[in-house]
Amino acid sequence: MENFKIEVDGDGIALVTFDVPGRSMNTLTGKVIAEIGEVVERIKTDPEIKGAVIASGKASGFCAGADLGELGGQAGAAGEDKRSEQEKLQAAFDGGFALNKAFRALETCGKPVATALEGLALGGGLEFALATHYRVAAANPKLQLGLPEAKVGLLPGAGGTQRLPRLMGAMKAAPYLLEGKSMSAEEAKANGVVGEVVEPGKTIEAAKAWVKTGDPVAPWDKKDYRIPGGGPYTPTGGQVFIMGNAMLRKQSYGNYPAQLNILKCVYEGLQVPIDAALRIETRYFLKTMQSPQARGMIRTLFLSLQELGKGASRPAGYPTYDVKKVAVLGAGMMGAGVAYVQAQAGIETVLVDVSAEAAEKGKGYARTLVEKAVKRGKMTAEKGEALLALIHPTADYADVKGSDLVVEAVFESRELKAKVTQQAEAQLADTAVMGSNTSTLPITGLAEASVRPANFIGIHFFSPVDKMGLVEIIMGKETSEETLAKSIDYVLKIRKTPIVVNDSRGFYTSRCFGTFVQEGLQMLAEGIAPAIIDNVGRATGMPRGPLEMNDDVALDLAYKIGQQTKADMGEQYVAGPVDALLEKMVVDLKRYGRKNGKGFYDYPETGQKTLWPGISDLVEITTKDADKALIEEIRTRLLYRQAVEAARCFEEGVITEARDADVGAILGWGFAPWTGGPISLIDGVGVKAFVEKLDELTAKYGSRYAPPKLLREMAANGETFYGRFGPKAAKAAA
Ligand code: NAD
Predict the structure, then answer these.
(1) N or C: which end of the chain has fewer CB within 10 A?
(2) 116 with 54: CB under 8 angstroms?
(3) Residues 284 and 149: beta-carbon distance below 8 Å
(4) pLDDT for 126
(5) pLDDT over 70 for what percent of the chain?
């Protein structure tokens, strides 16, 4: 066996060490699953073996779960999968079913088996442990046990939906199954998921001690077994379904088929013996796998995210750029956040502002984050001090000298940015990268101030920088591939996910996100009640409704952009009802949004925001009741308006990879994750059907929905975005 080693001790206890060669973390591949069968056979038939302990040979933990790329019956976003749909389904079925069978065989092998958990066990990893008769966990703060499948649109398909509720009760298990929440060692003990918690490094010993007298029969295989808290036929059990459904409606509005299927699986599975229950689970697992939502989510949130995190979009042929020192210009909200994440990654950071005081204030923000992390036990005090020692606040541009890269984050002014670019470049080596964090100014224009435009690039962070995982890298006309490679090395070093786009007003993320907030304004101007717009916006899976978002971004900014567009377009500009609405809100009423406590909502100093009742004096609200058709129409409009803008970005070459577009949308502006991203949404609906719906919407609401030529062409050829703009296709074309 490649992945397991078995050593039998003097007491006849077999120590089974799980260690997948060449990987930092164990995962369940087809080969591992086959070998679990061999391990079980050996435990069962070897007369010398009285019982077994399963442990990991990796410091990283026990097992991170199934290898989705392989078992999911899907190729990575990068790989072209030549298998037919039928073959993919068969592979998924075989994988899911084989795992369920192997685990059940382990559970019924007739000898006591325990798992020693030193670190994390997630998904199939936890399901593996649940199929043994006892679990010991180390008191390691990094240990996590959980079934995160629901988070990527999947259903735990190797017994998790059946064994977890049978161990801890269906009510208690529901949040772990439906939300993918994980538990610490102590929580797992309180939930009855592990039998004991011991000092790190002592789990094997404790597990062996249990095996000596352990019971080789799972509780649910005993005659007198009762589900903790009662099964579905008891009053409490029946409540699980009702409560779970309510939970889904509140949190995800039923957008995720996986969650509903998990719920059904628990409900139906708990009424029958375990073997039948596992078959029910396999059936729902497959049903979930077949949904376009699950496919999109797995591809984007699992495979693409992983690929981009490993630098998939980095041009080849350039040596890794060792970024040791970085200057951040501007110690405001963004600059301070960037300084913190850099120091976290061990990068020496020069934080420049107009005065030493302003620079020091920026460092103060990093100090607040460190103090919080230390207080929560996420960072030791020494580590916090070491981190802060890496940030050097200054007002002297001479300190920029020796930096490998610069992140400019001063006020959004072209003139100011030009000035600081020149000041910084005077200190830099020819090889250094000059990056701008501008959110709106085209990079090519900013690069005009640079003496080395090939080294000039957009490095667009999102706020709050320490929490947001995405960085949008923008190529100017003159930006070199080498600069791109260096910038990606920098982004990976600070542990963010880079997507690469070409220059355009609003780049990719702000441009598409802008259509969402705008469509909300359009709907309001049409007379749709604001509560309906925002409620449906949230129910669509966006983090907030479009009017709330307008308030957050600031209405005066939207007004200013409108005025600018008007000035740029001159007589061609046709003012619409949205302009009138914004003018009243901003100019007449000074309602700027959250920033001055007054927008479409009122923001009291204490308590929750409430919708501003005065809105009905500005707009005639015609739709007071939300009927089903209206809800569906709003939902479609909000999603499709963003998706068609993403498609336009492809047509214009602003973005060239389907993978970057989907990851950027979900991580950057919170595009409904259940769709897998706007591009997966279009592919899921089918380009042809998408175009037909756009034509319908264009006829009703105007040219902002008009499908670009690219979409019509793709519809005519029967193409998909992932087929045409998948990474492989792009490389072949190059
Ligand atoms: P901010 O107003 O909080 O900070 C700007 C800082 O630049 C201030 O501290 C100011 O003193 C400093 N500054 C001014 N002149 C300077 C000079 N000559 N040298 C050094 N520092 C100088 O602004 P912010 O929100 O941090 O935004 C900074 C940049 O990041 C802008 O270009 C903005 O568009 C962009 N951005 C902002 C966000 C966001 O959500 N706020 C998101 C992405 C990008």
Answers:
(1) C
(2) yes
(3) no
(4) 98
(5) 92
Domains of the chain by start residue, with CATH? 4-290 (3.90.226.10), 325-504 (3.40.50.720), 510-730 (1.10.1040.50)
Q: Residues lining ligand 1, judged by CB closer than 6 Å?
A: 329-335, 352-354, 358, 409-412, 416, 420, 437-439, 461, 463
Task: Assess whether pLDDT exceeds 80 at residue 47.
Answer: yes
Say whether 621 sits in a helix, a strand or coil.
Answer: coil
Which candidate in 111, 135, 208, 460 is catalytic? 460
Distance 368 CA to ligand 1 centre (A): 19
Mutate to test the pocket of ligand 1, among 341, 354, 360, 394 (most ligand atoms within 8 A of CB): 354
Centroid of ligand 1 to alpha carbon of 449 (angstroms): 18
Predicted TM-score of the model (pTM): 0.85
CA dist., res. 118 & res. 133, Å (int): 17
The H-assigned helical ranges of 397-461 are 414-425, 443-447
Distance (Å) from CA 410 to ligand 1 centroid: 4
Taking the centre of ligand 1 as the mean of its atom positions, its distance from the CA of residue 329, in whole angstroms, is: 8
Q: What is the pLDDT of residues 487-543, one digit of tens each?
A: 999 999 999 999 999 998 889 999 999 999 999 999 999 999 999 999 999 999 999
What pLDDT score was predicted for residue 301?
86
Report the chain's C-alpha Rg in angstroms: 28
Beta pairing, strands 145-146 & 182-183:
antiparallel
